[in-house]
Amino acid sequence: xxxxxxxxxxxWRSRFYMPEYCDVAVAVPLDATFTYRLSDGLLPVxxxxxxxxxxxxxxxxxVTDLHDRAPTAKAKDVISIFDSSPVLDAELxxxxxxxxxxxxxxxxxxxxxxxxLTAEFKRVVFYRITQEGQMxxxxxxxxxxxxxxxxxxxxxxxxxxxxDYLNARQEAREPGLRTRTGASKRVLAGMVRKKWxxxxxxxxxRDSSRIVRIAVLRAGLDDGRKLNENxxxxxxxxxxxxxxxxxxxxxxxxxxxxxxxxxxxxxxVEILEKPAGFRMSAVRPRRQEFQFNLAQQRALEKIQETMKxxxxxxxxxxxxxxxxxxxxxxxxxxSVLEADRSAILLxxxxxxxxxVAADLHQNFGSEVAILHxxxxxxxxxxxxxxxxRGEARIVVGTRSAVFAPVSQLALIVVDEEHDxxxxxxxxxxxxxxxxxxxxxxxxxxxxxxxxxxxSLETYFNAVKNKYALIxxxxxxxxxxxxxxxVVDMRQEFQExxxxxxxxxxxxxxxxxxxxxxxxxxxxxxxxGYSPVVLCRTCGKRLECKNCAIALTHHKQAHKMQCHYCxxxxxxxxxxxxxxxxxxxxxxxxxxxxxxxxxxxxxxxRIGRLDRDTVRGREDFERVLSALDDGQIDVLVGTQMIxxxxxxxxxxLVGVVGADMALGMPDFRASERTFQLLTQVAGRAGRGDxxxxxxxxxxxxxHYAVQYAAQHDFRGFYDKELRFRSWMHYPPYSALANILLxxxxxxxxxxxxxxxxKWFEATEHEGIRVLGPAPAPILRLxxxxxxxxxxxxxxxxxLNALLRKMLAxxxxxxxxxxxxVVDVDxxxxx
Length: 829
Ligand SMILES: [Zn+2]
Ligand SMILES: [Zn+2]
Known about the structure:
By secondary structure, this protein is α/β, with parallel strands linked by helices.
């Protein structure tokens, strides 16, 4: 009976199903996955890595699908399978697809960003000879063919040697090939172009499975039997080492293997296997007892309730500076751990200092994995594996920690959710806060967004009841918020007859603090000595060679530097345009402010915190603890000082040139100014003595300045929201910035014209298209830049149009890497 046969056939097929093809996401700037054939019974897993040929290389990719649908073009074969189980589970795969769709980012590049495992591969470059190469070698001789390019006799000789060398073997690695033949990289590249040889990138596996065996002393299990001398020595050694030690290390102490074995048999010592690089830590978690005020207690309860529902829930924790938000996060994470589940805490780039790490270790012991920007690739991979194995269920880290492979996710906390470092400014241009919300939704977990100055988007969502809004309106221990005094610098100019950096009022307040042995912080959000060099004869400024940006004078380092691309030039004695010697150094940066303060207060100990004095988080921490220990009287700095910890001795915050951002052609300028002013003001008066803030400005009537001075977030929010509504900006519209860039001006101009015409001719109802226009910074890092801004109340419509635009750009041969699509762009510069 045919029916019987069918059902039999079906079950047979499903039991022995071997797919013929797999789709692979490769980390290349192309909006597609690629289909490969599976030969020889290869059976990869979805979410696992495979090695595949791609163009002239071999690359690792993530398997996204297994199927039998033959592609239209002939599919190449998968070379090998890298993982027997997925490295990205179904949830993270789905999250990756969402990011790719939402941000219009190539899916292979998204998955690469999600997986910090580059350390496991070393790239090896191989060369092989082609049939064409063999023809050239045997028939014509390397010198005789392809007459178009003029090559020197030495180059021709090198080419011949390369062909000869490769003809004798299957393949050769690059360094060996070059030393044997004397061929330069250029010669090799030329031969690859002529198709005489092929170049292959082979990813070689590093030993990622190396295991360290550790002996751990099990306390309180004495079986009453006596220990012999060797055994006792071993136990004592282990005890002094804090209870555990690598076995290789024990062996170096000449402890006999038999003694260890017998201790293990008797249950006095346990052998654990840990991955290589695992750091033994004797720190056991010491759970903190929190002393909460009523508002904090209610916040914690609300978060715990949300987690208990087992469905998604979002909470905005809006707490003024110094209201004890961090303690609430820690307590919530402790309850996650007690429920045997996992939590992720995201912190801004600069927020993860060694002191914070030490706190976390103290609280969570080895249950915490800390991911920060100064980890090496290998360390990052090691932490990733620890999290994956479930050894660390509390993950704390910057932006990319949102992809941590935890299971049983219960909670994601985004601290300082308004911070710009959560947005990645390269492909994929995701915002970690928004990805956190989506991941929590997929996992039916809770998400907590915390800030003293929430972003307009987040607060809007809370007001619209998308998130529960919890307010912490008071500082801990009922400390008052600092009093803010606004100094009008226009008036200061009129009264003193000169442009002042530090007003008389601020100078007086600093003097008072010095007399009383208290501390002050002065914010000037611009580093270097002078931001502009101007010629008084021809009126031109000294600009960067690569960017349309003025070079900043750094006096101590004795150089001119571009703060966008890092370009360095000598300090000019003459104008480079007209040769005049009347070059003026204009304006004040943090370096000059420090010098000025030294002049005004010679007895004061002055420190500076900016990217010139701080290289890594250790430097940052060192300066802050010097302040905390009272070794610094006045700390000068850029916005870095707004993100410090509680320094109890700081009773004065001075703000110098706080309103520079207000002049920028960017719709977020007011919001950024309000946030910076509020955050830096929040550093004052965190100890027993109330704080004071002196806010110098040329725009004393601007609402961002006014509301910051009154600690009135809600007032600022309402006013700013009206402006956003009129101008159709977020949160009322979804926004995307499209940037066309090229190192050739005419090319950038032509491409933007091509897309401009296409937008005109294409139906885009409900979407505003502005542009093409030159970007506010026309030239950056050698690229000329033109842009479009797209706004729409419908994100679906916006993304559909962007997708069509990308397809059209590809059809017009505009390289994908030169069309930057930035969805929810933070910067329009
Ligand atoms: Zn000049
Ligand atoms: Zn530059």
